[in-house]
Write a structure and sequence with these properties.
There is one protein chain. By secondary structure, this protein is an alpha/beta fold. It has a single domain (16-202), classed as Glycerol-3-phosphate (1)-acyltransferase (3-Layer(aba) Sandwich). Helices cover 39% and strands 15% of the residues. The protein has seven helices and seven strands; from the N terminus they run αββαβαβαβαβαβα. It has helices spanning 16-32, 59-65, 83-91, 104-115, 130-144, 162-167, 188-201, and strands at residues 36-37, 48-52, 71-76, 95-97, 119-122, 148-154, 173-176. Strand 3 (71-76), helix 3 (83-91) and strand 4 form a beta-alpha-beta unit. The two termini are 17 Å apart. The relative contact order is 0.19. The model is unreliable at 1-8 (pLDDT under 50). Residues 48-156 form the Phospholipid/glycerol acyltransferase domain. Pfam families: Acyltransferase (PF01553). Keywords: Acyltransferase, Transferase. It comes from Acidithiobacillus ferrivorans. GO terms for molecular function: 1-acylglycerol-3-phosphate O-acyltransferase activity.
Length: 203
């Protein structure tokens, strides 16, 4: 278990702030939370969509800490209203999304991110808007032809508040599955069915 190997689009290109943030998250998730993870199966280079189950606000922290590639997330816009969380999210080039309707602009930003050869993190089982997130995942797969990397987190639980969850010590386990490759003409049901099945299999 441990970090995946450093790749060209990462630690060598990360700013001092980004490297410091990664080290902080690694220390918090590994030593404070007692988390464990398998070696990441995200490809060393090129675009990829990381699809994980969603059990708590800790989930993106474990995904970031367990990888040496930069992971950008689709994040509910209200998290950008807080100056502290906004600075952290901006360091990972995450994309704010509206909860109340389909946010076409956010999907277009996500497509551009994948076109740039980066990694996009999505939580299709929950989060901003489950139905729209799932449809967005299928659309992005068709538009980018990026592989989907399934992941599963167990042993973590959301508390009464985000702060309570961050402070409560848990021992999560993060597992990665084999990347899924789809044809550009794959329909949404095929993409979502295979992705959700792969995530469930890792439980």
């Amino acid at each position: 278990m441990g970090l995946s190997s450093t790749t060209a689009d990462q630690a060598t290109e990360w700013s001092f702030t980004q490297r410091s943030l990664h080290a902080l998250l690694y220390g918090y998730t590994r030593f404070y939370q007692g988390g464990h993870w398998e070696s990441s199966s995200i490809p060393a280079t090129g675009p990829a969509i990381l699809a994980c189950n969603h059990v708590s606000v800790l989930d993106p922290l474990f995904l970031v800490a367990s990888n040496c590639r930069m992971i950008s997330f689709l994040v509910a816009r209200e998290y950008y209203d807080n100056a502290w969380t906004r600075r952290l999210l901006e360091q990972t080039y995450s994309i704010p999304v509206r909860r109340d309707r389909r946010d076409v602009g956010a999907l277009l930003q996500a497509r551009r991110l994948l076109e740039d050869g980066r990694v996009l993190g999505i939580f299709p089982e929950g989060g901003i808007n489950r139905g729209q997130t799932q449809k967005g995942l299928a659309w992005l797969v068709r538009e980018s032809a990026a592989p989907v990397v399934p992941a599963h987190i167990s042993g973590a639980r959301q508390g009464r508040s985000d702060l309570a969850t961050w402070l409560r010590r848990q021992r999560p386990l993060l597992r990665y599955g084999v990347p899924l490759h789809f044809h550009r003409d794959a329909d949404a049901a095929e993409v979502l069915g295979a992705t959700m099945s792969a995530i469930t299999t890792l439980a």
